[in-house]
Amino acid sequence: MDEQGCPRCKTTKYRNPSLKLMVNVCGHSLCDNCVDLLFIKGSGACPECGTAIRRSNFRYQIFEDAQVEKEIDIRKKILKDYNKKEEDFDSLREYNDYLEMIETIIYNLANGIDVEDTRRQVDSYKKENKDAIRKNQSKLSRDEEYLEMLIEEEEKTSSLRKQMIHDTEVLEKNKKRREKEALIDELMFSDMSAADILTMHKTTARPAEAVDNSSFQPSQTTRYSTGIQRGQQSGLIPMPMTEANPVYHYEDLELERCGPIYPTIDDIIEVGYLSNVRAASESERAGGFEATLCCQRALQDALGGLFYYPELAGQSTSVM
Amino acid sequence: MFASSTHLKFWTFSGENEIKQLRAETSEKYLAKHASGLSEEERAKEFLTQSEERQLVRHFEYVLKEFCGKFQPPMPKCVVGTSLAFFKRFYVHNSVMDYHPRDIMLTCMYLSCKVEEFYVPIGQFVKNLKGDREKFADIILGFELLLMQKIHYHLTIHNSFRALEGLLIDLKTRYKDHCDAEKLRKIAEEFIDQSLGTDASLIFSPSQIALSALLASSSKEGINLDNYVTGTLLLGSSEDDLQKTIYQVKRIRYMIKNQEPLQRELIQIIQKKLEKCRNQENNPESEIYKRKMEEMIDEDDEIRTQKRAKLNEGRETDHELFGPLNPI
Fold it and tell me: Is B273 helix (H, G, I), strand (E, B) or coil?
């Protein structure tokens, strides 16, 4: 924002970084001072491109790129009219085609391609589907309902909590006040010495606090922990059934040996190979190393490849 | 494991003949490139013959083993095995005249230290060498990637040492009443050390070599392990497999027993000859090599400046597309 600067007063932007840029429908940005100036004079044209604009059309710029802002505006307008939801279509393909069409329209309008045709297209769509559009605008889709419900719930719980905190604070204050008064009464009227009375009050005060803290209970929730409301029947969206994939079947890995059969880990332990191998020290075992591992490796090395024989026809093998 | 390893699939040959043939092809390739016009006798005079190459390689394998023995910190045996394996594999497909064995030997050792999880920093590594240490460090680091490339990045070597351990464990567990396994260990390990000087690891599987070592050691100690082999180790396998394994074992023992001794006197002469006929592009001390290195660095710089220029261009075209950010 700071590098760009407002195109009209340029300098003011750099000097005042808190100045906000506002953007209009043609995608050009102006700082809010310049916007005010522009409309005091009563002129209704963008300084860069001369498109007629109204003050209400200025929005606070969120994105740095003015193109993006322009596209956001166009998108909002288009989506107000093209507001069909997924449920309104028979197949996923049709819905996707519809979405694709919307995107094409937005793209064309944002980049100034075929603006005339696109506008005509939009107008004709609006006329044809006037009723449907109106109906959809009033109907919230299911997702939005769910979200609204969640938001409500959150608000309820947070307000409940606030209430509880407030109540406990009030209780605390009252209790403290009462204790102080009781102490003063005792000091005035009782027969015991002042020190005794003080110690007695201290010891009685502390366990009372402990009891208070533990008695704070969470309020009755209206939800199960999975998020489903108590007592509400399904607004459950069923999981789409995937085609049954072939069930995975585990098969043991078979390694080629080229030699006699290796002893397994169990064999190694039972047959007694371990007594002929150095035992693993404590620190080694702590790291996960076991004597069976290196014993197995040595045995595999000794047995593997014993039957290796070069089966090459037509090559005289050697020395003997 | 070994049966599914690159060691078996790419670097195990059918016999000495096959390896000899591959080495001959490698020599031929080098000579065709560098000695194209010469006649047979001239070639033999100026360039190394195959037997000379073989002698030189075996000599440097021996030097490698010696160096590993004296290395500080003490090098575990698997590192020695791995570096010898790299060395042998390298010289199956590359000629001695192309890359000097001394450089490759050091590089093999450095690389195998890394591969076998016994990492030695280059500074400490060259402390074990006598001479210009920085030069050696440069050589090693310069050839490291080349070495890996020439062995096709097949870095996992299955050595026979662990196989021998496994056999000893098995012997102690399942056959302990009949023999004392610890007595066999020393001679078996020596056998495997000797086998590292031959091409056995390029032909046989490590478990077969370990088994031969065990049997050689047992025959020296006068213990008969035939019952162990047929009755316990290879119990349950087919007759065919049994026969084949025994045949392989015999081959290995024969090969190790009949190693030709190295002829020290010839080595000096061969080395002098090598200095004259070697490929100077790969000689880190030659002018050509140094020039090539400089050219490579210059190339890198050039590429970098080109890239930078392209990026700047790109930035300018971006400006043109979107127009100046500031209207007016």
Answer: helix
Note whether B325 contacts A298, CB cutoff 8 Å: no
Q: What's the rounded mean pLDDT across residues B171-189?
A: 84
- The CA-based diameter of chain B, rounded to the nearest angstrom, is 103
- pLDDT above 70 for A233: no
pLDDT surpassing 50 at residue A314: no
Which residues on A lie below 8 Å from B1 (Cβ)?
Answer: 255, 257, 300-301, 304-305
Q: Which residues of B281-319 are buried (b: 16+ CB within 10 A; e: fewer)?
A: ebbbeeeebeeeeeeeeeeeeeeeeeeeeeeeeeeeeee
Q: Is A52 helix (H, G, I), strand (E, B) or coil?
A: strand
Neighbours of B50 (CB within 10 A): 15
Q: Is the pTM of this model over 0.90?
A: no
Q: ipTM score of the complex? A: 0.79
Check if the beta carbon of residue A60 is closer than 8 Å to that of residue A20.
yes
Mean per-residue pLDDT, A89-113: 86
pLDDT tens digits, A178-226: 999 988 888 888 777 778 878 877 776 666 555 555 554 555 556 666 6
In angstroms, the CA B25 to CA B94 distance is: 10
The CB-based long-range contact list for B3-8 (8 Å cut-off, 24+ gap) reads B3/A255, B3/A256, B3/A257, B3/A258, B3/A259, B3/A304, B3/A305, B3/A308, B4/A255, B4/A256, B5/B156, B5/B158, B6/B152, B6/B154, B6/B156, B7/B154, B7/B156, B7/B157, B7/B158, B8/A258, B8/A305, B8/A308, B8/B205
Cα of B200 to nearest chain A Cα, Å? 12
> Which whole number is the average pLDDT over B214-240?
83
B76 upstream amide cis, omega within 30 of 0 = no
**B249-279: per-residue pLDDT in tens?**
999 999 888 888 888 888 888 888 888 888 8
Which of B203-224 are b and which e, b meaning 16 or more Cβ less than 10 Å from the residue's Cβ? bbbbbbbbbbbbbbbbeeeebe
Q: In chain A, what residues touch B166 (CB-CB under 8 Å)?
A: 297-303
Nearest chain B CA: its distance from A310 CA (Å): 5
To the nearest whole Å, the CA of B284 is away from the closest chain A CA by 38
Q: Which of B4, B19, B165, B185 should one mutate to test binding to chain A, selecting the residue with the greatest count of A CBs within 10 A? A: B165
Among A166-170, A232-236, A242-246, the least confident range:
A232-236
**Contacts of residue B244 in chain A, CB cutoff 8 Å?**
307, 309
